[in-house]
């Protein structure tokens, strides 16, 4: 575990210890303010200030404007040594995502939210046009969010729509990778493992269900399937569960054959 991973785990425990009451919407709003104001990010992450000084500044800035529980979460975030304001903002957004997922747990629909986010990730992954639009830096964020909202409108739960909208901002490299980081947090809350499945063409739901059942029987653990469509694999599929990879793609077999020929 890296020092940053340890800091994140420690922050999770500290925030969990605060109890319920913080608002994901309020924390997301603060993240947007931090993203727009570099000087504020620097002040709240200033390594020359003590932990208590940074937390005190957060209370003065946001106390009375946000709920006390949300201010307490911000205080815990700014006390940690992130090194840069961007990392601090990312840490705060992570807590907002965790709160949105926990709200889904409390509502008894986290599994449905995960299924909807997985379906959205698969739809984006399989569409060159969607991928291109979401990666286009000249395309306004608000327009991208409207695009995603139209895609899932009428069927998505509130938590799904909130998280899909946040993922458009792509704090983790791109939309799909950001969405996958949300799904990893959800898997931790559900006590499941994530199987990342790469295929040449989209799988229908019946095949996904059979694959899920087979992987659960093999691992003895509940599995959440994430589908990525990559025509380069040609055929077959590749499954990654943590560090374990099951390679059964045509491209993989061709590469293995090529290496064997080179070694003759």
Automatic annotation (TrEMBL):
It is a peripheral membrane protein. It comes from Tessaracoccus flavus. It comes from the Bacteria. Belongs to the ATPase delta chain family. Pfam families: OSCP (PF00213). Keywords: ATP synthesis, Cell membrane, CF(1), Hydrogen ion transport, Ion transport, Membrane, Transport. This is ATP synthase subunit delta. The keyword Cell membrane applies. HAMAP family: ATP_synth_delta_bact.
